[in-house]
Amino acid sequence: MKKFFFTICTLIVASQLLNAQQWITDDRRYITVTGSAEVNVQPDEIELDITLKEYGDDPFRTALNSIENQFFAILRKHDIPEEKVIFDNANYYWYYWWRYRNDSYKEKRYCLKLDKSTDFLALVKDLNIKGVSKIDIGSTTNAQLQELRKEVKIMAVQATKDKATYLLESIGEKPGRVLAVEEVSDYGYNNYSMSKQSNMVAQTTPSGEEIENLATIKLRFEIKAKFEIAE
Questions:
Q1: Are residues 179 and 136 in the same domain?
Q2: 88 and 160, same structural domain?
Q3: Domain count along the chain
Q4: pLDDT per position as a tens digit, 84-140
């Protein structure tokens, strides 16, 4: 019986200590802020989807293989190796047969991956030939994108400290140690959201290292942090 009573007392004391700890935590003075950082990155890698298609009327039709020879000659002129050219043959055997079964003009689609070593505008100008029926920009990226993402997140964390500092200084207080840090959202890239959060904005301008006349890649991240208010 005594052992049972002792166990109950132990549980009551432990419960009271736990409640006391929670009360201390809840009663602690702190400030929670959200900081954001944003950077515009110039693409240095691009993926083009290029469609070749026969043209002309019989018997003067220009065959697809002739257009392909001209296409690869243009790529060689720009020192683009064949390894960067991918024949987009996904579902080719049924899709293209079905779509063009009543079309006497054959076509073929290629995916071309380029980097900053290629004069993008000069290449597109040379590809402005009759056999190239369409050129689409599949995607753009930057080789240093992952490292840049880390840098932008660090900037966002620093923005939370700056924000907490000037807000507390306005009422005669100072931030103490950080209690918690949380990544609000991982936007990735090519994303922008209007916000009244504290912002740090940077613009990358690696002269001579980007593909010109392309939309920039926008990186934006938000971080929430809780700081203890210094006594």
A1: no
A2: no
A3: 2
A4: 888 765 445 445 555 555 556 788 889 998 888 888 888 989 999 999 988 888 888
Distance between start and end Cα atoms, the chain: 48
User: What's the token pair of residue 143?
Assistant: 């080789």
* Tokens (6 digits) for 199: 């912002």
Report DSSP letters for 54-121, one per residue.
-BS-TTS-B-HHHHHHHHHHHHHHTT--GGGEEE--TTHHHHHHHHTTT--S-EEEEEEEEETTS-HH
Q: Which of 94, 113, 141 is the last residue of a domain?
A: 141
Cα–Cα distance for residue pair 189/219, rounded to 1 Å: 5
CATH number at residue 79: 3.30.70
pLDDT reading at 35 higher than 70: yes
Tell me, yes or no, whether 105 lies in a domain. Answer: yes
Please, are residues 227 and 166 in contact by the beta-carbon 8 Å criterion? no
Helix/strand/coil (H/E/C) assignment for every residue in 155-167? HHHHHHHHHHHHH
CA distance to 69, 99, 101, 104, 146, per residue, from 96 (Å): 21, 5, 8, 12, 37
Cα within 13 Å of Cα(2), Cβ side: 0
pTM, two decimal places: 0.62
pLDDT of residue 121: 83
Q: List phi, psi (to 5°) of 178.
A: -80, 135
Range of the domain at 219: 28-42+144-229
Residues 37 and 149 in one domain: yes
